[in-house]
């Protein structure tokens, strides 16, 4: 009851308290309940029943539902504002619970009921965003889903499953054998448990049967009361939501009841479906006023929904008839979508025209609709029905939906509910259309319907008993009727066709999808689909529905100006056709697979043709499509085509028995052909004025999800038409549609009346390509499914290597889910492995991350590459080019062909016998004339022809030769008879014989200006020509000369003639119509130059043209030599591999060989032609005009070549620049920054400014700076001291504790020191910056600082959105575009000077020590005096400010007195330390590799040191405290200091961090530093370091070892090199420290530290070396940067000796033969024993008081390992399952976007508002705390890694890949993912090297919102 209580607390004023039941009852509910239960259990329980009724009347009375007010108006107002459910409601619920339990406790009652639960089904209901699983191997229905628990408990190993996020919600099907196979059930639901569960005792649920009806009735009354018809303009969601909120506890109570299991569900089912109960309670006939009122409200609600209540039939009957017959538009009340012929309120304002039209159309429909009552009669007979009614009225509240679904495991309920749902189907549609939240509502509807209709048994039952199919089809029809408009296709004025308007919300927002998806779902059941296919009335209605989409979204070509507004309605149109037409079609087709289903196909085809005939009539279509318009939507054509294809392929139907007559075929082919021509026009840029959207349509039409429902059926339909129509007619139609008839003339000039010259070439290419596709595509003409799959896959792989998921996506699978070709099915995998090789994901460092790709096998390129399929399937034209480039590369690589190959000719699968007629296209004279003409034009170099045209021409010739009739028939010529007059081109129609036919003269029509015009008439052998005549609607002109020999042959006339012959069925009439006598000079419209007739001498045959073409292509005379003359074998085995791949020359040779093979005559003729050594074709006399055009062409060509050359040069330049500048990883060839010291003649370092391009030194007035990126880093702090990496926690037990990290250890140390010692001294004894240290890196480019300032100014004014924030000083390097945020001034200094500094001097160490001390004491001894403010010093200061601001204050301030100078001092030298340490890590943690590593070139440490030193010297250390003196001088004891107890002592020298001391000493010196001073400092510090090592060693070992060492060392104390022997020194240290308490308190805990191993001299030596190495490494690096000396490389074991000699610690005469001893590097400035005892004294005096801490503070051997990210588990699921349900620590809810930090394992909410602190979301906050501004997070729900860097973030990618090497961002595919170690390594590398900013390109600001 918590919810109710909460609601009560919130809801404002309480409603007035009603009088409670009689006081006696109120006293003890439990007693009353027990008493009633006993009364009811008696055999005669009438009295008990009445008593209970009375009690319930009182408790559950609806007198005071929600509002106190009574009148309608006030009620409405109060319903909005009335108080929350007061105590009364709560009281009522309490009563119910008590009564149900019959006096017992409610909890116990629940438990008791649960015991009787026969749960064989899971039935868990979930809402959107729930993570569920789907297993295709176990599913029977495609909608099957499992909850995670059932999935993991079942066994699905090796199955095809995936995880998904539920979109609309769903329910778990585990245990339901209708939906899934039993093998997949989980352990809980495998047992059929009904047998072993005992019967429910009668009295357990007895009370429920009495109480629940009243309770549910009460709920219904509340719902009735709360509902108010929304006013016309005000959306009323608010009111509805209020009512629902108030009812929340009641509905939740019901929901809880359903969860009690089967026993309670069956009681609820009884209650909900019992009609008598309902009648008694709700009739409203009683004397109870309240009940009456509620009944009235219910009737009002029904009416306002446009529904009638059967009792009111009399009133509404009249209206109903009128609706059926008249055209009444609007009935009494607005907005009701109920009655027919009525428009939605939104359409009422439409113009009358369209309204009238709508009415006309609708009337026609209404007569065919089965039953008006489907739409507007509802009678409720039970609670369930009225509950559903209100659920719909309230737009499917989630709680109600869940309650209704939770009941489904009860079989009886399931049937009742399904019937009720179907009964309300029309009402659902109306509510959906009006809804403002149609998306949410759609999801909820589908959530319910998918549970009901996926079950075949149930679907069948409802279909039989409730007319489910009728209802669905009618409802869909009605829904679309509301948005019809007049079709403008073809005949705009008189068209009677109406189409849906794609701009309407209904289509734009996909509002129809729930209904369509239900329809597709039920059609997937065979029993239901059969009912549909047998029912003629339904098919008629359905075709009617489909025809609404026929011709929608018509495009008209803009000819003048660009469209103002590009509409995007085409998305809606394509989606609608795919979802509402194609998907149901595929569903139906899937049931037409066998012979027995022929009848269904005949039905569909019959009604489809009828609908098409109606459509042609409605748009007044005769024979010509209207120009310049195209629609891509012809669903009727496609239905027809797909059913034909299925009939032939699967049902063995005779094709001709289902084909219409020729006239219908001619009409059918027009529109699909129009689409193909329009595609070519769109690609030729003829539609550019229509905007980009038309290109979008052309792409969508062929795109993988649409192509097999759009372009494939269209092409198939055209193939069918072509195989049955006259071939000459078909070919000429094609060229006319593509507008290139005029181009097909022998004349060199022509006029095209319908096409601009610049489009001619691409349109001709389009026409030929279309013919090639039409003739060679076999998708529906005989290929098996597996062959199709293979061809599709090869085409996609040839365009590009593809990932597995993109292949699945690109291969058009049969869109119906039940078709059997399931993505990922076995055939897919087996075909894939047959045609492709897997390329594992490789990684280029610094490059992009590759995914696992599939690439075609070599033999696929060799034999299966099919350019035709590629052209058909490419969305972008560039993909065809890409496929050809890859093919070329393959041929070059495999050595098959070196040059530029042509697309290969591929053998086709044999045609199905039904389609043999298609090949007649290749053997018709029209095509031969076209081929001959084009070959001739190409040979003569006419304009507008391309290699592509030639390629297609040869392809067609070759297709013809491959598919020729077996024997040559010469009698064809004689068949023609009298018709022959115009056929003097070719004798017959067989290509093989026509190839050798010589054509001598051709008469052509040319402009008078053309060069061909000759005035003389030639001999009568002249032949016909193609005319360039064409006019739009006039009959074509045929010119008849008096001799009657030469005819002007016109394709178009020919086609028109054929057409009219068929229509008039009389050739004589037709001839008269077609051939009027006209004057010989007829001018084309548009007053073009006069055309005149010229006769050309040709004297060529196709064969001779081919041979000449061969000469032309090869560029040599007589290049063709028939191969069979040398090798007669060739004619016997025609398949010769050498002809498979090659260019045009090869193609010509292949064709000639095939021609010779097919006929001996051809062979002879080819030989003859080759013998007549053909002289070159003499060029015609070139006129001046032609010369002009030729010159123009030549000039253009030359310009083009020049341009290419320039571009190539530019590209190579750019490339070389990129190589030098951009390469993140190979900076060897970078701009030299420091000029090497070997050139003493150069006086000063010279820098190039990358902005102004000038070179010069950096001066004080105009300083130069390095482009640097400053970033805070905590990488160092993440080093841990144990070897095994930390793992990401994946269970509650695993936790990561940060106290073993480097940062934590250093923190503890500093605070310990600060507890016991003087603050200022503590701050010099350590370094900070392990967390939040500032790291400085550069790309190595320099610029003038003033140039940089103006550059920043220009960036500031730049309006372009950059990925960085200029206000924060960010920019990209002007040269290499690397991200940067500051400029580091270069210190002016000459190199020669530094040479002097570097000369070794022979001074003694004592002298050097003095010099160092003096130099440190001299403040500001700088070349630049600080007092005079120069530009340089200003810049130095500003960069120092930048460095400070880079990190947060908490990482800078460690002092107890805020803002003390010591703090800045500490910060500055720590910056130096951070950069050195990080460089060391980048080198792998040691210096064995040596050399100037990559970091060397890009290093800016030199400049950084100058800046730091300048600032350090501003704070000169008081010489008293300078540690230098303690290191180099013996101090006399001053008692005064001892006496002053209250002052904290300084930090003892042995507690100092030596590396920090080194940096302090060096930065205190004037720069540039002299080498000998540097060496001196190092030597002195080494003595301290060594002593620290000895102390640490002495503490490490146990008491016996110590005394032994003390003894052995003491013996050697007086030898000559005692100061350089570690034994002596160690014994001395031990004896000194024994005076204090350091070794005391050897308690028990001490034993843990002591290593049990006995120390040998070797192990001691190793310990000492390891102790000193970190210092030596840092020092060597420093020396390398300051003095530019290279680091020597070495083995790991000799690193110590190499570094120490490099640093000058080792005397030069040292021999390396002995085993190396570290002590030999010591060079004590003062007697060793004296200074050691002085140092030990400090420690002793400290341990007097704090022995424990004294030991803890001793510097330990550093054992830090390199930093690593957390180790991730192998399988992603382990992370996902643990974290995606983990609750947030702040708000204890499960976050919407959980993430986990990969550095420290912290669980955070991405964008979570609950964890926001001062406007910072948790991820951003964590990135600042954990990584000082850098965060690496794994987003649990997306498997993606996100990087936060400062104020920007980027998506990095995923380190988890699936079995195919692909990422699965957002877990969309939900396949199992596995860690990719290489990627993770790269991520870690970028983190350690701080290169996220440089390598990842897509950064955006996060505004602290992550």
Structural notes for this entry:
The protein is α+β, with helices and mostly antiparallel strands and 1906 residues long. The chain contains 76 helices and 30 strands. A hairpin with a 4-residue loop joins strand 25 and strand 26. Helix 3 (29-41) runs antiparallel to helix 4 and helix 69 (1657-1683) crosses helix 70.
Strand order, sheet with most strands: 24-23-25-26-27-30
Characterize the overall form.
flat
Q: Can you give the mean pLDDT?
A: 78
Oligomerization status of the protein chains: single chain
End-to-end distance: 36 Å
In total, the number of strands is 30
Give the % helix: 40-55%
Q: How would you classify the helix and strand content by structural class?
A: alpha+beta
Uncertain regions spanning at least 5 consecutive residues: 1-27, 62-85, 312-370, 816-824, 967-983, 1014-1049, 1063-1088, 1176-1183, 1221-1242, 1390-1397, 1420-1427, 1534-1541, ...
Strand content: 5-15%
Separate helix tally: 76
Please outline the major beta sheet. 6 strands, antiparallel
Q: Output the radius of gyration.
A: 46 Å
């Amino acid at each position: 009851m918590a919810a109710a209580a909460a609601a009560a607390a919130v809801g404002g004023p309480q409603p007035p308290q009603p009088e409670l039941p009689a006081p006696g009852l109120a006293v003890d509910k439990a007693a009353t309940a027990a008493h009633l239960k006993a009364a009811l259990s008696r055999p005669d329980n009438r009295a008990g029943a009445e008593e209970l009724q009375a009690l319930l009347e009182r408790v559950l009375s609806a007198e005071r539902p929600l509002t106190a007010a009574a009148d309608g108006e006030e009620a409405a107002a109060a319903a909005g504002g009335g108080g929350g459910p007061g105590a009364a409601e709560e009281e009522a619920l309490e009563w119910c619970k008590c009564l149900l339990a019959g006096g017992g406790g409610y909890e116990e009652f629940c438990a008791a009921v649960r015991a009787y639960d026969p749960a064989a089904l899971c039935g868990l209901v979930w809402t959107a965003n729930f993570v569920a699983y789907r297993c295709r191997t176990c599913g029977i229905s495609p909608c099957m889903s499992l909850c995670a628990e059932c999935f993991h408990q079942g066994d699905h190993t090796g199955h095809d499953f995936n995880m998904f996020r539920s979109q609309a919600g769903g329910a778990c099907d585990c245990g339901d054998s209708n939906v899934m196979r039993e093998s997949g059930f989980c352990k809980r639901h495998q047992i059929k448990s009904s047998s072993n569960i005992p019967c429910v005792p009668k009295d357990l649920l007895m009370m429920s049967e009495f109480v629940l009806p009243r309770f549910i009735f009460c709920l219904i009354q509340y719902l009735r009361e709360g509902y108010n018809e929304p006013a016309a303009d005000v959306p009323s969601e608010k009111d509805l939501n209020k009512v629902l909120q108030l009812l929340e506890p009641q509905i939740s109570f019901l929901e809880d009841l359903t969860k009690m299991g089967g026993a309670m569900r069956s009681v609820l089912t009884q209650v909900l479906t019992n009609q008598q109960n309902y009648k008694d309670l709700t009739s409203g006939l009683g004397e109870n006023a309240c009940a009456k009122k509620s009944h009235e409200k219910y009737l009002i609600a029904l009416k306002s929904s446009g529904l009638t209540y059967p009792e009111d039939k009399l009133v509404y009957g009249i209206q109903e008839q009128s609706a059926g017959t008249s055209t009444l538009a609007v009935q009494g009340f607005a907005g009701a979508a109920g009655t027919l012929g009525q428009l939605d309120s939104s359409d009422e304002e439409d113009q009358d025209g369209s309204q009238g039209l709508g009415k006309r159309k609708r009337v026609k429909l209404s007569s065919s609709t089965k039953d008006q009552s489907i739409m507007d009669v509802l009678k409720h007979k039970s609670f369930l029905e009225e509950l559903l009614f209100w659920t719909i009225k309230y737009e499917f509240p989630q709680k109600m939906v869940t309650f209704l679904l939770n009941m489904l495991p009860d079989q009886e309920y399931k049937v009742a509910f399904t019937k009720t749902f179907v009964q309300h189907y029309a009402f659902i549609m109306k509510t959906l259309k009006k809804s403002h939240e149609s998306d949410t509502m759609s999801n909820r509807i589908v959530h319910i319907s998918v549970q009901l209709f996926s079950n075949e048994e149930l679907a069948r039952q409802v279909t039989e008993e409730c007319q489910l199919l009728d209802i669905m089809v009618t409802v869909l029809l009605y829904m679309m009727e509301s948005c019809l408009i007049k079709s403008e296709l073809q005949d705009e004025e008189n068209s009677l066709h109406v189409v849906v308007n794609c701009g309407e919300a209904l289509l734009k927002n996909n509002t129809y999808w729930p209904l369509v998806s239900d329809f597709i779902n039920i059609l997937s059941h065979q029993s239901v689909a059969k009912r549909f296919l047998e029912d003629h009335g339904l098919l008629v209605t359905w075709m009617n529905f489909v025809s609404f989409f026929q011709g929608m979204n018509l495009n008209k070509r803009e000819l003048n100006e660009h469209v103002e507004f590009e509409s995007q309605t085409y998305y809606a149109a394509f989606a609608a056709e795919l979802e509402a037409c194609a998907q149901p079609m595929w569903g139906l087709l899937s049931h037409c697979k066998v012979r027995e289903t022929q009848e269904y196909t005949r039905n569909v085809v019959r009604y489809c043709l009828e609908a098409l005939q109606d459509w042609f009539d409605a748009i007044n279509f005769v024979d010509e499509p209207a120009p310049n318009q195209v629609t891509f939507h012809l669903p009727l054509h496609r239905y027809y085509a797909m059913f034909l294809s299925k009939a032939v392929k699967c049902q063995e139907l005779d094709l001709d028995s289902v084909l219409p007559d020729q006239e219908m075929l001619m009409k059918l082919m027009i529109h699909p052909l129009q689409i193909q021509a329009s595609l070519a026009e769109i690609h030729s840029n003829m539609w550019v004025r229509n905007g980009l959207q038309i290109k979008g349509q052309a792409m969508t039409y062929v795109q993988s999800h649409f192509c097999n429902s759009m372009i494939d059926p269209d092409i198939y339909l055209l193939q069918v038409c072509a195989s049955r129509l006259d071939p000459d007619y078909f070919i000429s139609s094609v060229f006319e549609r593509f507008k290139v008839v005029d181009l097909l003339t022998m004349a060199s000039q022509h006029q095209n009346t319908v096409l601009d010259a610049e489009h001619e070439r691409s349109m001709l290419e389009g026409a030929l390509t279309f013919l090639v596709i039409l003739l060679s595509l076999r998708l529906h003409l005989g290929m098996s499914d597996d062959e199709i799959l293979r061809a599709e896959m090869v085409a996609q792989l040839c365009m590009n290597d593809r990932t597995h998921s993109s292949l699945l996506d690109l291969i058009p699978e049969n869109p119906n889910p039940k078709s059997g070709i399931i993505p990922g099915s076995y055939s897919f995998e087996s075909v894939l492995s047959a045609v492709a090789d897997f390329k594992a994901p490789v990684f280029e460092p610094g490059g992009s991350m590759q995914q696992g790709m599939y690439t075609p096998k070599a033999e696929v390129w060799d034999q299966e590459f099919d350019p035709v399929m590629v052209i058909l399937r490419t969305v972008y034209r560039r993909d065809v080019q890409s496929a050809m480039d890859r093919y070329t590369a393959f041929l070059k690589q495999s050595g098959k062909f070196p040059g530029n190959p042509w697309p290969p000719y591929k053998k086709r699968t044999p045609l199905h016998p039904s389609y043999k007629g298609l090949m007649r296209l290749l053997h018709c004279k029209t095509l031969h004339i076209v081929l001959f003409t084009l070959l001739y034009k190409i040979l003569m170099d006419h304009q507008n022809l391309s290699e592509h045209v030639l390629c297609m021409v040869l392809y067609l010739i070759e297709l013809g030769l491959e598919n020729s009739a077996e024997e040559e028939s010469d009698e064809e010529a004689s068949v023609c008879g009298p018709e022959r007059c115009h056929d003097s081109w070719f004798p017959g129609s067989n290509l093989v014989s026509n190839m050798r036919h010589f054509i001598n003269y051709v008469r052509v029509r040319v402009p008078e200006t053309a060069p061909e015009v000759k005035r003389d008439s030639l001999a009568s052998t002249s032949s016909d020509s193609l005319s360039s005549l064409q006019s739009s609607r006039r009959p074509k002109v045929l010119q008849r000369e008096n001799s009657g020999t030469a005819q002007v042959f016109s394709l178009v006339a020919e086609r028109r003639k054929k057409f009219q012959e068929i229509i008039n069925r009389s050739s004589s009439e037709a001839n008269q119509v077609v051939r009027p006598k006209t004057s010989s000079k007829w001018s084309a419209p548009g007053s073009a130059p006069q055309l005149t007739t010229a006769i050309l001498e040709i004297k060529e045959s196709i064969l001779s043209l081919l041979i000449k073409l061969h000469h032309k292509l090869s560029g040599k005379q007589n290049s063709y030599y028939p191969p069979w003359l040398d090798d007669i074998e060739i004619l016997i085995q025609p398949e010769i591999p050498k002809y498979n791949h090659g260019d045009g020359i090869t193609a010509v040779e292949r064709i000639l060989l095939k021609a010779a093979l097919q006929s001996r005559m051809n062979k002879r003729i080819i030989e003859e032609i080759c013998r007549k050594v053909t002289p070159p074709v003499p060029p015609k006399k070139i006129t001046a005009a032609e010369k002009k055009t030729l010159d123009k062409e030549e000039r253009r060509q030359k310009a083009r070549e020049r341009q290419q050359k320039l571009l190539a040069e530019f590209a190579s330049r750019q490339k070389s620049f990129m190589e030098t500048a951009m390469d993140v990883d190979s900076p060897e060839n970078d701009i030299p920054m420091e000029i090497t010291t070997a050139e003493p003649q150069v006086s000063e370092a010279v820098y190039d400014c990358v902005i102004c391009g000038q070179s010069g030194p950096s001066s004080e007035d105009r300083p130069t700076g390095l482009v640097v990126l400053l970033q805070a880093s905590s990488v160092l702090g993440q080093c841990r001291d144990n070897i095994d990496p930390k793992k990401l926690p994946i269970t509650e037990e695993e936790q990561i504790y940060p106290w073993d990290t480097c940062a934590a250890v250093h923190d503890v140390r500093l605070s310990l020191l600060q507890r016991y010692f003087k603050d200022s001294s503590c701050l010099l004894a350590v370094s900070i910056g392990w967390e939040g240290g500032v790291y400085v890196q550069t790309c190595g480019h320099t610029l003038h600082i003033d140039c940089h300032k103006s550059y920043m100014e220009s960036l500031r004014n730049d309006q372009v959105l950059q990925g960085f924030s200029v206000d924060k000083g960010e920019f990209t390097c002007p040269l290499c575009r690397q991200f940067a945020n500051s400029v580091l001034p270069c210190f002016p200094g000459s190199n020669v000077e530094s040479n002097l500094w570097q000369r070794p001097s022979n001074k003694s160490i004592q002298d050097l020590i003095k010099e160092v001390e003096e130099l440190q004491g001299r403040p500001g001894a700088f070349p630049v005096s600080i007092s005079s403010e120069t530009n340089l010093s200003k810049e130095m200061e500003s960069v120092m400010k930048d460095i400070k601001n880079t990190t947060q204050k908490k990482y800078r301030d460690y002092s107890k007195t805020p803002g003390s100078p010591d703090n800045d001092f500490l910060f500055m030298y720590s910056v130096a330390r951070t950069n050195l340490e990080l460089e060391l890590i980048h080198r792998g943690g040691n210096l064995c590799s040596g050399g100037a590593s990559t970091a060397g070139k890009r290093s800016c440490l030199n400049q950084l040191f100058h800046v730091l030193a300048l600032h350090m010297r501003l704070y000169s250390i008081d010489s008293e405290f300078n540690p230098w003196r303690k290191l180099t001088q013996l101090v006399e004891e001053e008692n005064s200091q001892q006496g002053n107890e209250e002052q904290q002592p300084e930090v003892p020298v042995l507690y100092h961090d030596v590396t920090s001391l080194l940096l302090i000493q060096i930065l205190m010196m004037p720069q540039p530093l002299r080498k000998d001073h540097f060496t001196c400092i190092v030597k002195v510090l080494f003595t301290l370091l060594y002593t620290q090592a000895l102390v640490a060693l002495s503490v490490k070992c146990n008491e016996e070892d110590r005394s032994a060492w003390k003894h052995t060392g003491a013996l050697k104390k007086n030898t000559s090199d005692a100061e350089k022997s570690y034994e002596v020194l160690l014994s001395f240290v031990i004896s000194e420290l024994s005076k204090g308490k350091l070794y005391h308190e050897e308690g028990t805990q001490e034993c843990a530290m002591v290593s049990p191993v006995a120390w040998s001299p070797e192990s001691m030596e190793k310990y000492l070396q390891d102790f000193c190495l970190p210092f030596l490494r840092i020092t060597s690096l420093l020396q390398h940067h300051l003095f530019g000396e290279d680091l020597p490389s070495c083995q790991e074991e000799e690193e110590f000796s190499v570094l120490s000699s490099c640093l000058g610690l080792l005397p030069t005469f040292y021999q390396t033969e002995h085993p190396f001893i570290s002590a030999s590097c010591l060079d004590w400035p003062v007697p060793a024993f004296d200074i050691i005892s002085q140092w030990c004294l400090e420690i002793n005096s400290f341990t007097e008081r704090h022995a424990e801490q004294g030991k803890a503070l001793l510097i330990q051997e550093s054992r830090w390992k390199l930093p690593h990210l957390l180790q991730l588990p192998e399988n992603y699921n382990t992370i996902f399952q643990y974290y995606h349900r983990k609750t947030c620590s702040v708000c204890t809810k499960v976050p919407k976007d959980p993430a986990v930090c990969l550095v420290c394992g912290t669980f955070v909410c991405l964008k979570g508002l609950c964890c926001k602190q001062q406007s910072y979301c948790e991820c951003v906050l964590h990135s600042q705390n954990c990584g000082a501004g850098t965060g690496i997070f794994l987003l649990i729900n997306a498997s993606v890694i996100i990087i936060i860097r400062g104020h920007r973030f980027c998506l990095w990618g995923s380190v988890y890949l699936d079995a195919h090497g692909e990422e699965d961002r957002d877990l969309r595919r939900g396949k199992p993912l596995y860690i990719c170690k290489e990627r993770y390594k790269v991520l870690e590398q970028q983190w350690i090297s701080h290169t996220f900013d440089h390598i990842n390109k897509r950064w955006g600001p996060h505004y602290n919102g992550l």
